[in-house]
Amino acid sequence: MKKFLCGVDLGGTKISTGIVDENGNIIKSIKIPTMAEKGPDVVIERIEESIYQVLKDTGLEMSNLKGIGIGSPGPLNAKKGIVISPPNLPHWSNVPIVEILSKRLGIEVRLENDANAAAIGEHLFGSGRGVDNFVYITVSTGIGGGVIIEGKLYSGENSNAAEIGHHTINFDGPRCNCGNYGCFEAYASGTAIARFAREGIEKGIKTKIKELAGEGEVKAEHVFEAAKLGDEFAKELVEKEAFYLGVGIANIMAFYNPRKIAIGGGVSAQWDMLYEKMMETVRKKALKPNAEVCEVVKAQLGENIGVLGAAALLL
Amino acid sequence: MKKFLCGVDLGGTKISTGIVDENGNIIKSIKIPTMAEKGPDVVIERIEESIYQVLKDTGLEMSNLKGIGIGSPGPLNAKKGIVISPPNLPHWSNVPIVEILSKRLGIEVRLENDANAAAIGEHLFGSGRGVDNFVYITVSTGIGGGVIIEGKLYSGENSNAAEIGHHTINFDGPRCNCGNYGCFEAYASGTAIARFAREGIEKGIKTKIKELAGEGEVKAEHVFEAAKLGDEFAKELVEKEAFYLGVGIANIMAFYNPRKIAIGGGVSAQWDMLYEKMMETVRKKALKPNAEVCEVVKAQLGENIGVLGAAALLL
C-alpha cells in the first residue's frame, strides 16, 4: 500500500497540516488557529486533532502514513525531538513533542526547525531538486535559512547553522531584535522595510505609503504598493531592499559556495521589483568564481512550503 | 613498512616541503625559493627537487611515502588537480599539476587550496582533533579559511566555500582588493591594520608606529609593537582589529554553527593583545546558542601548518 506523508507546520498563530504524497503533491491541507496562549498541552492536542481531521478528509488511516513531520519555530533540538522555548510559543519549555506525539499516535514523528524544514522541502520538491549544494532563505517578518550541503541538511553543532538573518552586514547599523547591530535581518526583512518607511514618514517625507496604510500600521506591503504607484520614497526603499538582499546573498555565496540560492517568504512575492537591482549588487560584491556557479531563484513552493517541508522530513 | 606523508606548501615566494608521519610529526622539512617569476615549468621542477631533497635528508625512498599533498594558492580545481591562475604564481594557467607530478614521480598526488589544506591539517593534527564541526581561519596579509563539516572538508560547488575574507561586514566600508567594499579582509587583515596606521600617520597623528617603521613601509607588526610600548593610536588600532575579528567570528558562528574556530596566520601571533576584546565583541554580536557551543582558540600548528596541512591531504 502506498505510503503518504503528513506534514505539520506549527506556527505561533496557526497550525497547517497536510497529507502529501512522495512526489510532493498535497492531497489535502487544513489550517487551524494554534491558540498558542493556552500553552503546549492544548497546542499538542490541536496538532493531533488536525492530523485526524486531514486523515478523515482524505479517507486515509494512520497506517497509510509513513510518518509525521513537524516544522516548528526554534530554538529546538531536532535530534532529541525537543522544542526548547520559541518566542512565539509561550509557556513552552523543553517540550519533548516527538516522544509525546509518537507515543499517542503510534507512528514515527520527526522534528526540525521551520526554516530547515522549508529548505529540505524546497530541495526535494521545488527549485532545489537535484541540487547538491543548495541554500534556501525566507525573507518575511524575519530572515531565516537552511542549507543543504552535498545533498544533506547541515544543521551545525546545535541545530543553529544558517542563522543567516543574524549575520552582520554593517557593524555600524541599526539594532536588531537579537541584540546585535546591523544584522542582515535588521536591513532586509519585511519588518525592516516597514521601519525604514516609518522613519521617513516621521521625518516628514511626503509619501503615498502613509495614505495606503491609513489608520493602521505601516507594513512592507504598503511600501511595495506605493512604489508600484510611482511614489519616489517608496521606490527608493525598494531599491535599498534589493541592495541589502544582494549584500546578504553575496555573503551566502562567500560562505557556502552553493549552486543555487532560493528565496521564499513574503518579500519574495515582489520578485520582479527586486531581482534586477539585487543581482546587480551580487555581481558587484560576490567573488566571481562563487557568483558564476550560483543561480539565484524565487522559491517554488510558495505558501505550501511549511507543510511540504515538514512532510519532507520523512524522506 | 610504515608509510610517511610528504607535504608541499607552494607559496608565491617559497616552497616548503616536509616529510611527516601519520601522527603529524614533521621528520624533516626544507624551504626553497619558489622562483615564481620563471613560470610553472621551473616551479614544478623545483617542487620535484625539494621532494627528492627531503627524501635524501631522511634516508627514505619514494616507496616509503603514502603520497604527496600539495597546498597551493587558489583559484584551483582540487578534484581535477588543476591550478587555475593564482595572482602570486604568474604565468600559471590551468596547470594540471597533479597529473604532471604523479606521472613523473610515480606516486599519488593530491591538491587543495592552501587555506583548506591548513584547515584539514589543524583538524587532524592540531586544535581541531576530534572536532566534527570546525572552522580554521588564517589572518595575515589576507584572510582565508577552511571549514570541516561533520568531519569532512566542505569545499562547495567549485572549491570556493569558506571565502571568509571576502564577506561584507560593512557595506559602507573601504574597498577591498577583490573589488567589493567592506570585506572582512579589508578591515581585519594585517594589510588592513597597516593601511589604517598609514592613514592615521598621513592625517598627522603622532605615533611611535612611524619611528618603528623607520624608512621602510609601515606594517602590522609595527602597530602591535607600538601598542606594546603604550602608544595610544596603536592601542586604538589593536582594539579596532580585535573588534573587527569579533564581527567576522560572530558571522562565522551564524553561518556554520561550529564547535570550534581556530585562528592562525601572522596576526594570531598577537593573541594575548587581541583575545579579550575580540571575545567581548563575539559575545555581544553572536546569537547566544551559537556562541555558547563554540570555542575560539589560537591555531596550534603555527608556521608548520602549510606542510602539515598539505601532508594531511593524504589521510
Percent helix range of chain A: 40-55%
Structural class of chain A: alpha/beta
CATH superfamily of the largest domain in chain A: ATPase, nucleotide binding domain
Count of distinct strands of chain A: 12
In total, the number of domains of chain A comes to 2
Quaternary state reads homodimer
- SSE topology string of chain A: EEEHEEEHEHEEEHHHHHEHHEH
Chain pair forming the biggest interface: A-B, 47 and 47 residues
The backbone outline of chain A, from C-alpha atoms, is globular
Content of β-strand of chain A: 15-25%
EC number (chains A, B): 2.7.1.2
Family (chains A, B): Belongs to the ROK (NagC/XylR) family.
Organism (chains A, B): Caldanaerobacter subterraneus
Keywords (chains A, B): ATP-binding, Kinase, Nucleotide-binding, Transferase
Write the layout of secondary structure elements.
Two copies of one chain form a homodimer.
Chain A: E1 4-10, E2 14-20, E3 26-33, H1 40-58, E4 65-72, E5 76-77, E6 82-83, H2 97-105, E7 109-113, H3 114-125, E8 134-139, E9 143-149, E10 152-154, H4 184-188, H5 190-202, H6 208-213, H7 220-228, H8 232-256, E11 260-264, H9 271-285, H10 288-292, E12 295-298, H11 305-312
Helix pairs in contact in A: 3-11, 5-7, 5-8, 7-8, 8-9
Plain-language structure description:
The structure is a homodimer of 315-residue chains. Chain A has two domains: 4-121 and 304-312, 2-Layer Sandwich (Nucleotidyltransferase, domain 5); 130-299, Nucleotidyltransferase, domain 5. Helix content of chain A is 40%, strand content 20%. Chain A is built from eleven helices and twelve strands. In chain A, the strands form three sheets. Chain A has a five-stranded mixed β-sheet with strand order 3-2-1-4-7. In chain A, strands 10-9-8-11-12 form a five-stranded mixed β-sheet, sandwiched between helices. Chain A has a two-stranded antiparallel ribbon with strand order 5-6. In chain A, helix 3 crosses helix 11 (305-312) and helix 5 (190-202) packs across helix 7 (220-228). The longest helix of chain A is centred in the last third of the chain and has 25 residues, at 232-256. The interface between A and B is large, with 47 and 47 residues. Chains A, B: It is an enzyme of class 2 (transferase). Chains A, B: It comes from Caldanaerobacter subterraneus. Chains A, B: One of its GO terms (molecular function) is ATP binding. Chains A, B: InterPro entries: ATPase_NBD, ROK, ROK_cs, ROK_glcA.
